[in-house]
Design a protein that fits this description.
Chain A: It comes from Azorhizobium oxalatiphilum. Chain A: Residues 7-103 form the AtuA-like ferredoxin-fold domain. The complex is a heterodimer of chains A (119) and B (456). Chain A is of the alpha+beta class and 119 residues long. Helices cover 26% and strands 29% of the residues of chain A. In chain A, strand 4 (57-63) and strand 5 form a beta hairpin. Chain A is elongated, with a radius of gyration of 15 Å. Classes of the chains: A alpha+beta (119), B alpha+beta (456).
Amino acid sequence: MNAPLLLHRLAHARAGDKGNRLNLALVCRVPEAYAPLAAQVTPEAVAALFSARHPSKVVRYDLPNLGAFNFVLDDVLEGGVNASLGLDGHGKSLSFRLLELELEPTEDVLRALRVIEDR
Amino acid sequence: MADLVRIGSGAGFAGDRTDAAVPVVAALARMEGPRFLMFETLAERTLALCQLARKSDPSKGYSPALEKLLAPVLADCLASGIRIIGNFGAANPQAAAERIAQMARDLGHAPRIGIVTGSEIDDRLSVSELAARETGGTLLKGRSAITSADVYLGAAPIAEALALGADIVVTGRVADPALALGPLLHVFGWAEDDWDRLAAGTLAGHLLECGSQVSGGYFADPGVKDVPGLDDVGFPILEIGRDGGILVTKPEGTGGRIDRFTVIEQMLYEIHDPAAYLTPDVVLDITDTRVEEVGSDRVRVSGARGKPRPDTLKATVCFEAGQLAEAEISYAGPNASARARLAAEVVRTRLARRAPGLKLRVDAIGLTSVFNDTGGATLAPLFETEREDVRLRFSAQSTDKAELEMLLDEVEGLYCAGPAGGAGVRKHMTPRLSSASCLIERGMTSPKATLLGAQP
């Protein structure tokens, strides 16, 4: 069996927090990654990935001219930095949780991967 | 009349590197025209901590990072005409200004120091009036006391302080991007409804406000996105034109990296709707911005658009919320995961008997240190994974110290009465300040700029 194909291969991410709300900026490593990620990294897929934190709402904002997406997840920070019992109350590490998302190896995903590998 | 303003970042948070501003100031000193150095040092909770410090000593209450951040560059800034803008005034801008005046005197300088006040609103609104204005929760409802309540002020009073001739402007709570927009308003005289220009200045401030997060800091992922010289990462210098054009650069000879990726990551940092980033000065829309690499470590950003500023200002209200208790213990070697799981179960069971109301969180460093959830759903299956080194971390929050002491005692009790091989217990309790957000009518605030020593 092949190792799972992780979002980390196609994109970068950075997390930001405000209160109990998390934003995850997802930036495509190459323009070719934008369309397949738009198809696969849906708000539903992200909500499922963070289901243990029970998001009350997940919204994706598309930024095609920046080759990026912005995900906003409500109520996933265990109360936020001033209330969370966890070590990472800001949720700063959660950018890399997003990058663990497993992608389907569709033709356009594989094409984007080849562009990255050929650079 | 200047058509270009240069703003460097000296710090993106209170814990930032204290030597970072030195190359920024050296580079700015070699340049012409209006130049500013900006310090952002106030996290959400910092102001409440400073408020507590001020209550116990009226000469305190400014950012404890002030001295260590300013000392390395204060003399060079004053000698080179680089004006400084910082929110290190925190809960006591007046005391911060007096401290800076003293530091400058010791260096043989007598700068004019501007003070921006008016962010505190706890003297204007009662706790119940604040509770009625809370957004996104009901944490303030029924509460009798708060520690601090501050609105995020805009750029206008900073520009005003500069117009009074301030070499250094000290603020309390202002919107972070306002620390850059203030100087731009002052130099360019943009109209207060020139929304696209205000948007560009706000975007410049947003790119600067986290220091090196735009120039290679918080970016490196070895083999995927490498950053040269991270041990000496250069902090950003932005060149902003009268038309709102932005060029992102850093001092020559420093480490770090500025390209489309570093700029876009910071551009989206802590943004929600990219078409409507709310600030006191303008609603910023970045959906049509262009980010172009125009040279090595040089990126041009253009196309920010603005919409009229909101009628309300955001305020952060902090209140005391008891204590946070944390205790840790390690299990290593064969069968470590199973022993750690048993230890967690033992503490849970005993605490459920002794302190039934206490919500307990268990993390297991080595299995999942930060991705876990407080319910423990993420961790539970991972205990099946064989690891040779697992460090359990227990945490709880309460206003009942005795209850938290029980948790700490139960973890320590694992030494003799828990599973085999438990080691390295550490435990501590820290006071907890929680925060809530409110929306406050502009009319409730009266931001003010004065010069230190001037008659009121």
